[in-house]
Amino acid sequence: MKRDIYDEDHEAFRGSVREFLVRSVIPHVEEHAAAKALPREFWLEAGKQGFLGLEIPEEYGGSAAGDYRFNAVAAEELNKVNAALGSCWGIHADITAPYLVQLGTEEQKQRWLPGVAAGEILLAIGMTEPSGGSDLAALKTTAVRDGDDWVINGSKTFITNGYSADLVLTAVRTSPEKKARGITLFAIPTDTPGFSRGRKLDKVGQDESDTAELFFENVRLGDDHVVGELDGGFIHMMQKLPQERLGCGISNIAHAKQILDETLQYTKDRQAFGTSIGSLQHNKFLLAELYTQIEVSQAYLDQCVVAHDQGELTPIDAAKAKWWTSQIQNDVLDHCVQLHGGYGFMNEYRVARAWRDARVSKIWAGSNEIMKELIGRDLGL
Predict the structure, then answer these.
(1) Environment class of residue 353 by beta-carbon count within 10 Å: exposed (0-12), middle (13-18) or buried (19+)?
(2) 138-163: buried (b, 16+ CB within 10 Å) or exposed (e) per residue?
(3) Is the Cα dihedral 118, 209, 192, 176 positive or negative?
(4) Which residues contact 243 (CB under 8 A, 6 or more apart)?
(5) Which pLDDT score, from 0 to 100, does residue 362 have?
(6) Which residues participate in catalysis according to the annotation?
(7) How far apart are CA 185 and CA 99, in angstroms?
C-alpha cells in the first residue's frame, strides 16, 4: 500500500540520511558492535549533516524542522541498519533534546543546545532505577537543598548512551512528601564531581549501544541545572513520553520490515526439495501473513505520526502504537529466524542479531504490560 504522509522534501532528506549511513556508518557496524558503543566520530559527522538538530531551533545551531515527519524518516533509515543505531540517535535527538528546547531557560539553551546539535555534547536521559523499572513515580534518587545548591544522591540503570554521554537529564526526588508530584529534572554534566559510571552493561542484544549504570554521590549543582519546573518533573515526563513511544513504534516497524524484506529474498534464493523454500505453501502463507501484519501496523503508525505532527496524538494512542508494534516486531523476527533455519541462529546473520535486538522493545519506554494498563484505564476499567 502506498504511503502518503511524506512529500518530496521528506524523501530528499531520506536520501541524505541513506547516503550518510552508506558512507559513514555501514562500513563500521562490526567495529561499533565490538566496541559496544558508537564512536564520537559518528556523532560529530551526524551533527555536521544536521541530523541531530531536527528538534533544535536555528539560533541554537539546529535545523528547526518544525515537522516531526523528518524525525520519523531519520528513525526509519537508522533502524534499517540496526536497532541500536536508531535507539542511540533517538535518545539523543528525538527524546532528550526536546526537554532542553521546550523546558530549558534561555541561558541553558545557549549553554548546551549548540553542542547537542553538533554532536559535541552527547545526551542521555536518566529515568530508570535498579528498583523501579517502569514505575517512574517510585524513583529513589534524591536532591536535597543545601544553601544555594542541590546535593544529589542515587543511581540509574539501563541508560542508553550512558557510558559516553556528556549531559544526563536526570529525574530526582526533591519533595518526598509529594510522591509523584515531588520529582524534578536536573541536567547533570558527567564531569561533575561525584558523578560516576558503572561498566558497559552486557546486554542480550543491541551490542552497538553503550548502556550503563550511573551513580550520583553528593553531586552538587545549582538551580541553573534544574530543567523545567521544580517538582514538575513527573508531569514533564508524562508530556514527553508520547513522542518517545511513537519513536519506538516507528523504529520497531522499520527494523522488522527491513529484516522481513531480506528474509523474503533469502526464501527465494534458498533451495530445498527441488524448489525455493518461499514457494512451499506453508512459507508462502506465512510470508503473506507477516507482510500484511507489517503493512497494517504501518498504516496505524503513519496516522499516529500525522496526529503527532499536528499536536493531536494522545498518550493512549501512543501507548497502543508502542505495545502493538513491539509485539509485531518480535513475532515477525521470530518467524524470520525460523525461515532461515539453522543459519538464523548464527550471529553472523543479520536476522539473528535483529531478533536479539528486538526483544527489549517490549520492555523499554514502559513495558507492554504497562501500556495495556494505560489503555485499559482509558476504557474505564
Answers:
(1) buried
(2) ebebbbeeeeeebbbbbbbbbbbbbb
(3) positive
(4) 68, 94, 95, 98, 308, 318
(5) 97
(6) 244
(7) 9
E-state strands within the chain: 123-126, 142-146, 149-160, 167-173, 183-189, 195-200, 211-222, 226-227, 271-272, 275-276
Phi, psi of 215 (to 5 degrees): -130, 140
Model confidence pLDDT, tens digit, residues 218-272? 999 999 999 999 999 999 999 999 999 999 999 999 999 999 999 999 999 999 9
Low-confidence ranges of the chain (pLDDT < 50): none
The DSSP symbol for 264 reads H
Q: For 303-329, write each residue's pLDDT tens digit.
A: 999 999 999 999 999 999 999 999 999
Q: How far apart are the C-alpha atoms of 368 and 362, rounded to whole Å? A: 5
Which pLDDT score is estimated for 273? 93
The total number of residues shown for the chain amounts to: 381
pTM over 0.90: yes
Which residue(s) pair with 185 in the sheet? Answer: 171, 227
Say how many Å lie between the first and final Cα of the chain, rounded: 36
